[in-house]
Design goal:
This protein is mainly α. The protein has a single domain, classed as Hypothetical protein af1432, CATH 1.10.3210. It is built from 10 helices and no strands. α3 packs across α7, α7 packs across α9 and α8 runs antiparallel to α9. The longest helix has 20 residues. The chain starts with 12 loop residues before the first helix and ends with a helix. The site of one fe (ii) ion (FE2) has 5 residues, from α2.
Length: about 200
């Protein structure tokens, strides 16, 4: 693998795959490859850039195996305060992963970086690529949770509805486990509820 940190040569797809295979546990790698496949399929369906979707998917969980202290330290070392994320530290691999992609892997595509950054919480007004990664993370072929078939069908027919249903299923799960729900996710629910109501009334 050729890596030149000083010149920030962007990692190729192969560099990234080599890194993921040697640094992440096998089940994580399989999940990431599943998200990459689902993201490429959604990109084809919704006329988005398949290579970008694949790269964003390959980056999305690159720091998922790091613990809270590491993620908080990593963000602060790069001038970012985790803020509300401290109440929901499992969301921090997303913004931290986006910093890692930029700083270590030389990834400069802002759309890819944003898709990595918001893949866990979602946000109001996501770009097409952000929505593709957000939904692909839920529907990849390794997922078996109750309701995943309905989400897969929704993803094929209406991406906004799939985003909203994914958000709702994760918020329900977090509330059941007494875990903090990030305000970004609640804002996203409101945004996509209104967006869908607007479309349906046309
Ligand atoms: Fe993730
Ligand atoms: Fe994921």
């Amino acid at each position: 693998m050729s890596m030149n940190y000083t010149e920030q040569t962007p990692w190729s797809r192969k560099d990234l795959l080599d890194y993921l295979s040697s640094h992440l546990k096998e089940s994580r790698l399989q999940h990431i490859l599943g998200v990459a496949k689902a993201a490429k399929e959604l990109a084809a369906l919704y006329d988005s850039d398949g290579d970008k979707a694949e790269m964003a998917a390959l980056y999305h969980d690159i720091l998922k195996d790091k613990d809270k202290a590491w993620l908080v330290g990593y963000m602060r070392d790069h001038g970012e305060e985790p803020g509300e994320g401290l109440l929901a530290w499992k969301t921090l691999h997303a913004p931290a992963g986006s910093i890692f992609a930029r700083e270590v892997c030389g990834q400069q595509d802002e759309e890819i970086l944003r898709a990595v950054r918001y893949h866990t919480t979602g946000r109001a007004g996501m770009s097409l690529l952000e929505k593709i990664i957000f939904v692909a993370d839920y529907i990849e072929e390794g997922r078996t949770f109750k309701g995943v078939e309905r989400l897969r069908a929704l993803a094929g027919s209406d991406l906004d509805k799939a985003v909203l249903a994914s958000l709702e299923s994760s918020i329900t799960y977090l509330r059941k486990s007494d875990a903090h729900v990030m305000s970004q996710s609640l804002e996203a629910v409101q945004y996509y509820t209104e967006a869908i109501a607007g479309k349906d009334s046309k």
